[in-house]
Specification:
two-stranded antiparallel sheet, 5-stranded parallel β-sheet, Rossmann fold, elongated, about 200 residues, alpha/beta
């Protein structure tokens, strides 16, 4: 089966770099209060809009006006976003680099806002090292919308069965699998390495 796979598609958040909103929100709420639950709902809704391509600054400003009780935390979210996007998951980067050294094309497929992706690339320039980055904010579509997977197939030139996909969310992996992609739900780099090895893809390490 290893010979069948021709391209490798990686999610970014919680696969290549940790995404932890609590790095900011925990400073304001202890996680057990109703305010904390409500804040999580607000930020998830806000993030979805940003991931679909709406302007980062404008959306946050709208939510500050709509939810003034969260103004302090949302301003912190806006001004210190990078604190939530760390650290790198080194083991996954090692797998990715080994695949590149083998001559395999590697792609990023991630739900990410336009402005926040550019900020992430400033702090992690290696995010620009993919053959191509499929970023939801630029496409106007978010996973697990099936169309975004179609776009990857069209742009990469590979059929669904020729793509190996790594994502930490089961819903995203499910849609990829339904299209015929070989999907790996990410939990840690060693399990990813073991899955690839089981498919006959012999990594160096």
């Amino acid at each position: 089966m290893g010979k069948k796979i021709k391209g490798y598609v990686f999610d970014i958040g919680n696969v290549l770099v940790s995404w932890s909103p609590s790095n900011i929100t925990k400073k304001y709420f202890d996680g057990s209060t109703s305010n904390s639950h409500n804040l999580n709902q607000v930020t998830e809704e806000m993030n979805l809009r940003i991931d679909k391509g709406e302007p980062f600054q404008e959306v946050i400003k709208e939510y500050i006006n709509k939810y003034p009780k969260f103004e302090e935390v949302l301003l912190d979210w806006r001004d210190n976003w990078i604190q939530m996007f760390q650290p790198k998951i080194t083991g996954t980067w090692l797998v990715l680099e080994e695949l590149k050294q083998m001559g395999s094309p590697v792609y990023a497929l991630s739900n990410f806002g336009k402005e926040t992706f550019e900020l992430a690339c400033h702090f992690y320039p290696e995010l620009k090292s993919f053959n191509f980055c499929f970023i939801s904010g630029y496409l106007g579509l978010v996973k697990p919308n099936e169309k975004i997977y179609e776009i990857v197939e069209e742009k990469s030139g590979f059929r669904s069965g020729e793509l190996f996909f790594v994502d930490d969310r089961i819903d995203n992996c499910r849609v990829a699998s339904e299209r015929g992609w070989i999907a790996h739900r990410f939990t840690n780099p060693q399990r990813l390495r073991d899955h690839l090895n089981s498919l006959g893809i012999r990594l160096k390490s």
